[in-house]
TrEMBL record:
Organism for this UniProt entry: Nonomuraea angiospora
Listed PANTHER family: NITRATE/NITRITE SENSOR PROTEIN NARX-RELATED, SENSOR HISTIDINE KINASE DESK
Keyword Magnesium in record: no
First-level EC class: transferase
Record protein name field: Two-component system sensor histidine kinase DesK
Domain Signal transduction histidine kinase subgroup 3 dimerisation and phosphoacceptor stretches: 198-264
UniProt keyword annotations, A-Z: Kinase, Membrane, Transferase, Transmembrane, Transmembrane helix, Two-component regulatory system
Lineage: Bacteria, Bacillati, Actinomycetota, Actinomycetes, Streptosporangiales
Length: 388
């Protein structure tokens, strides 16, 4: 499961936890009412049916909100069911009345701020308007020993607290989800742009390196055809030049493809740094002041790409440190992050296993393991001069 799916599932679970709170409060209020002899089945049964229907509708509202839609029909229907359940159940803010608060938290997910205020005030008024008469009629347990005025103050304060807390809490999670979606879309756009730029670069290189040679070959071939009936020696000389140009073009084409297939370490470091920071992971890169020995940079570029891929896919890191050093005997790449998960140090995954084989082919070795201070470190070491 990729990061965006995990973020969606986490947001969905957090928003759905409101219904767990609703059912717990309703069950507790019903048990207290039953113990006090206030539970009336002719009210409790339809209230329970309304709550079940409300619970069935709310996941649809959450999914629509995560898809950046506002399901007006479902929100209105859920609001009606919440009023019915609260009115029949007694309207206690720590019981059946919490259904109204839960509805408010969902109904305000995709609306402007002014609408949030209006809906919060309306929910507060409905909750107080249902709860206080229930106290006066002896239906509600909360405030049963108080006067109507005292119950009014209690219900006004309690519902006000709920209506102030619930919408911002749920909207904060939706904001976090929106940021995750934007970061994911930005990363995909960056990837597409990088691919497009690389295609343009390769096309430009082919045109610059091979285009001139092919044009010369076309001209000289046409000239050789014209001279074939007039001056055979001149025609042979032109064809010899065509052969030389063809070999030169083929050699330059191979060089261009070889350079295209080999990763550039500097470009790869800039790329992974941008991707990590876009994902909210602070990245620090430490490089030697001298250029790396021949052949080391492409090998380390692949290792950096694989290491950062694992940081993004298999950890919960907040920072990543990439360091490269070398001496006359060896060169070392170190990638360290604080997002280690509990797993066997030998379990490197197929990507890192393949990287270990790549390093072994040039006389190097790879190690990846958690450290004692709760971090995860990957080391790639190659002996110099490079073997293989």
């Amino acid at each position: 499961m990729d990061a965006i799916k995990r973020a969606r599932r986490l947001t969905w679970k957090v928003l759905l936890s409101n219904f767990v709170a609703v059912w717990l409060l309703v069950i507790m209020a019903s048990v207290v009412a039953f113990g006090e002899g206030r539970l009336q089945w002719w009210r409790a049964a339809p209230a329970l049916i309304a709550l079940i229907c409300f619970t069935w509708l709310c996941p649809r509202i959450i999914n629509a909100a995560l898809d950046r839609r506002y399901p007006t029909r479902e929100v209105v229907l859920a609001g009606g069911l919440a009023v019915v359940a609260a009115a029949l159940g007694g309207g206690e803010p720590f019981g059946w009345g919490f259904v109204l608060v839960c509805w408010l938290g969902l109904a305000t997910l995709q609306v402007p701020r002014r609408t949030v205020y209006l809906m919060a005030v309306g929910t507060w008024a409905v909750g107080v308007g249902i709860g206080v008469p229930a106290v006066a009629l002896g239906v509600a347990s909360l405030g049963s020993g108080m006067s109507v005025g005292e119950a009014l103050v209690l219900y006004m304060i309690t519902y006000a607290v709920w209506c102030v807390i619930m919408p911002p809490s749920n909207r904060m999670w939706m904001w976090i989800w929106s940021l995750a979606v934007q970061a994911h879309e930005g990363r995909e756009a960056h990837t597409r742009l990088a691919l497009a730029e690389e295609r343009l670069r390769f096309a430009r290189d082919l045109h610059d390196l091979v285009g001139h040679q092919l044009s010369a070959i076309a001209v000289k071939t046409e000239l050789a055809v014209r001279l074939s009936d007039v001056d055979a020696d001149a025609s042979k000389a032109e064809m010899a030049e065509v052969n030389a140009l063809t070999r030169k073009a083929l050699r330059e084409l191979r060089q261009a493809v070889r350079g295209y297939r080999e990763l550039d370490l500097a470009a790869e470091l800039n790329s992974v740094k941008g991707v990590l920071e876009a994902a909210g992971i602070r990245c620090e890169v430490h490089l030697p002041y001298r250029e790396l020995p021949d052949g080391v940079a492409p090998v380390f570029a692949y290792a950096v790409r694989e290491a950062v891929t694992n940081v993004l896919k298999h950890s919960t890191a907040t920072f990543c440190d990439i360091s490269i050093r070398f001496t006359a005997q060896e060169a070392e790449l170190s990638v360290r992050n604080d997002g280690v998960r509990r797993r066997r140090a030998a379990d490197l995954g197929s990507g890192l296993a393949g990287m270990g084989e790549r390093l072994a082919a040039v006389g190097g070795k790879l190690s990846a393991h958690p450290t004692e201070d709760g971090e995860f470190i990957l080391n790639a070491v190659v002996s110099l001069p490079l073997g293989g």
